[in-house]
Amino acid sequence: MLSSLILLKHSWYRFSYFLQMFQQHGYKLNEFYHWIIRNFYNRVIVAEHFLIVIVIFSLLFFLSERLTITAATLILSLFTIFWFGSTSRYKPDKDKKPLVYTARMKRLAGTLAVIFLLFAYIVIDLSFTGRFLNTPIVIRDTGSALMIAEPYFLLFGLIIADMSVPFFLFLAALLMKPVESRVHNRFKKKARKKLAGLPDLKVIAITGSYGKTSTKYMIHSLLRERYNVCMTPGSYNTPMGICKVINNDLEARHQILLLEMGARYEGNIKELCNIAKPDVAVITNVGKAHLETFGSRETIIKEKSTLAKELKPGGILVLNGDDEHVAAMADLSPDSDVIFAGIGQGSIRASDITYNENGTSFILKWHRNNEIVNEQQINMKLLGFHNVQNFLLAAAVAHKFEIRPGTIAHAAERIEPVEHRLELKRRNGLIIIDDAFNSNPTGAKNALDILASFTTGRKIIITPGMIELGDLQDTENQKFGRLIAEAGLDLIILVGKEQTDPILKGIKNIKPDANNIHVVSSLFEANDIIKDYAREGDVILYENDLPDTYNE
Fold first, then answer.
1. What is the model's pTM?
2. Class level of CATH domain 423-550
3. Would you report the helix, strand and coil content of the chain in percent, each value rounded to 5?
């Protein structure tokens, strides 16, 4: 039956789509659950599901006297083609982050496929045999005394299967949870054993609400002038990411293991430190990132401070002296060698900060007993006030590893921007500030300040706003909107009508008559506007780029 084939094709695309969403939520059932609730009527159970069920029961109970089964089958096929023939809802033209069939995803997809196919088999078997476990199944039909209504039952069953794909995924993930736990524990045990066999290896761990990855790359750039350093790539900051690097990349020749430690829930930092206990701990800041999962800033402070508590006895603790919450963590590790680094506070500071299209320049100053003992001119390709702060933390680590100030200054010139973190690009005569990675209130303000500092060309921003800020999300996005309005930009493109409504309200609070605003549904539409609008010399800021899970 044609309608069955169409529905099975539709289910296959839903199968892939929900696996992709689950993967983008880090295989976290609770986060996937909240995503399902947010998208229940536009992705999970859609209007077409209800409409086709209405058609099935209307034909079966009201029109079956006048229709043959063949005619009913043809009608059902036409409705199915019309409502389920297109799969564009679950297969966009472009994916920002396509589904990747990792070993874990293959295990999950296989389990999901077994559950789905088992359900589909039962439906098809019932429809064509009229029996279940050798028991006759009959459905009363108004067109005759008793008849087995195979086409109606088959289509209804496949509709239920199609609707149930995300719920089958929940069941598959629950079934696989013990298996994945054993796999994870095996990798952790292997990583701990390998580290135990390298007693001279120094472990440097970095955490903070933001700036972790940039600081990590800076530390690597400075330390590699003298040491063999093994570093986790990109944003590898989860237990399995760290274990993968330790188990596969760490070698006996390495002298330093440089780790980024991320956290979305209480206990995450402790779990990571149980894998690799740090000799050096670097804490960048405490912000409002991941408030949606942490619940409060106090919880974030407590979680980030775990790194200071887990530091090995006699270790080195490097803290952001400008962040009062971070600076207070010095008391949590009384037997450590504590060093503060900050723009205005600490033993390593910066002054005379300037930045332009070529990067950032400043004076790096070493203080001892409130007196300057050394100064170095620093020139780097990176943009932004917070990157100066990140560099100070990196310089503090380098100083503790006896890297000379002149070497630090020389290495700074070769530091490359981290992808999508205030990354400066030039394309077809345009200046692009790519700050598309995981925006937060502090970083967004900093990026706007940089955009406003350019003196040539028109200034353009493309943004979907900020996410994962919990109850403060709308408030922070309204503040962001007011900052955008005050920045005096030439063109504002907001991506996602519902997501950016608070930003638009913030802009209108400052400039009620603003007419330089476009609201589009995707980043691809935003880029189409840029193609027609932008000209040589214009500066474009891409501030955040939401994952596929937030597409409206």
1. 0.81
2. alpha beta
3. 50, 15, 30
